[in-house]
Amino acid sequence: MPSNTSTASRFSSLFKPDPYRDFFRVIADSLSESILVISGDGRRILASNHAFTLLSGFSRSELEELRFTNLLAAEDGETTLGQILLAWDNPEGILADIPLRTRQGSIELIDITLYPIGPLGSAILLKCCPSQKRKYRLARETAQEQQLKTILSLSTLLVGEHEGPLDEILEISKPLISATTMGLYQVSAFYPDYERVGPLPPDFPMTLPTSAIEPLIPITIWSLGHRTEHELQKAAKAAGLTALRTAPLGSAEAWIGVLVAGWRDPNEMPDEAEDWMQFIANLCLNLILHQAQKDRLEDLKGYASQLQSEMKSQFSAVADALLILDGDLEILRSNLAAANLLGYQLSELEGLAVQDVLVGAKDINGILLDALGHQCEAEISRITIHHRNGTPFPVYMRVVPFSQGSMTRLLVVLQDRSEQQAIEDQTEMLAQRALLGDVTAILAHEVRNPINNISTGVQLVASRLGQEHAQYESLQRLRQECDRLNQLLSDVLFFARPLELKMEPILLDQMIERILNRWAPRFRQSNVSCLTDYTDDTPQASVDPRTFEQVILNLISNALQAMPDGGTISVKLGPVSTTHGQMIELTIADTGSGIPKEIVDRIFDPFFTTKKDGTGLGLAISRRILAAHKGTISVESFPDAGTVFTIRVPAVEPSPRGV
Predict the structure, then answer these.
(1) Rounded CA gap, 349 and 365, in Å?
(2) Which of 21, 32, 229, 578 is least surrounded, with the fewest CB atoms within 10 Å of its CB?
(3) Domain count of the chain?
(4) Are 595 and 635 in contact (CB under 8 A)?
């Protein structure tokens, strides 16, 4: 064979005279694959390795005297040779199921991989492998793929909700070990025996006593020809099975059951049957334990539901008013006594902020926060809160913190002291009212009129002196103080006397537009723009026009004062659905500097104010008015961005058709 040192093939240099041919043989003989080298025309056999001699049965010397076509079946020889000679057009091409004639005359199907060597027509290296190996490998890969699919199906059963999942696991698992039948004996929940599960033949007993399970705890194997010592082995023989395997479920502390698999042909039992049996047993065990835990959980849920129902009945039967608050001081639960005491329907209280329900002159919110933060009880022998309609009444209040899981709750107990101190309170109330009436008359006649006169006189003197006079600014401040005192008297009188509301169905957008039109000159003077957004078809609200307008005026005035350098007031109106029914929601937002976080929870407290000339009663009065309207008011403030007040009042229920 001519040599060619420039060829890319690593074998081309090995076809020179010795020692290169010997070198090639050493390398080729070290390979497990069968190697054959033929001439470029495919007629002569140039070299072979030891593996090929074993495959064909010919020796090296015999092979070198043969033509390559002598190794092929006569009817396929020339066709196969023609395909091999195309190796230069299809390097590393593969010819499958080529019939190889062995020295003994038998035909062995082989797969040939083609490697052309050297220049065109020099030589061709053939790597030969029995076709059976390829088919076995493919079958093995198919079996592994099927096993993976089976395992995936089993995992789906473990996490899904299925009827009779044990039967499905047993049926799906049979192909893993090529079993004819498979089932298990599981401990019964009703009697001490183990009951049969799965499609075992009818020859197998329906139950097994505990004594029959103990011999099966170690993994056992039985095949035809061996003694049938156990009841299951006798049943297998009667059912026509020739092999039986068992695998235990559970541990030494508690054996849950035993897995049973049988074969009619023992040759179908895979070598790894023991490992697969234990795997399937573990799956069944986990499913049984999971189902037991699920059943236990359902029992616990039923027990918890029963306890909850009993506690709810006891909670509702308590005569004292009870409120349970979460960490944000919102009402989670209340009893009927609390609803009746505060003037709400029982369903209305849930979800409300307690500061919107327990409205009083004293900082109740601070008391609750202190009890929550320090985890200590608080008790107030007498505190006055307002009924939903605005009527004040005294209560005994006790606050008890408790834990519910990882969260802290507050139990607020309220006892109405009105009846206990009826005579004393009535006498005191009458005296206070009489005194208040006298003081009101005195203030109205003896204080307010002189203050008005002083204010008028100061205004007159200031106008005569002129703005250039040195005392002009002092006179203006004096007049402003008179106005502030007059407003303070009005607020105190309003806050002190009971509210008398005359509820009417009102379209709030029309009321708001009238108010904004009156305030338009002040907006322009303060460089404030006003934006409105009214939802179409907003239903009427049930309000007292006089007091509700006072609330809006107070909020607009506060917004204007919060923007001394100008800004924007946004007014939005629309219906909202809540747990308390259909409500009308009004938001008034400004673009001022916002309310400091540390005082935002106190702005509704009476006499609390951050304004130099404020009375501290505006927002307290507003909350009281809205509580009497069966409504709420809340605030959100954002530093350097502004403040948003949200008011909700009940919508007027539409009248039925034809009424």
Answers:
(1) 17
(2) 32
(3) 5
(4) yes
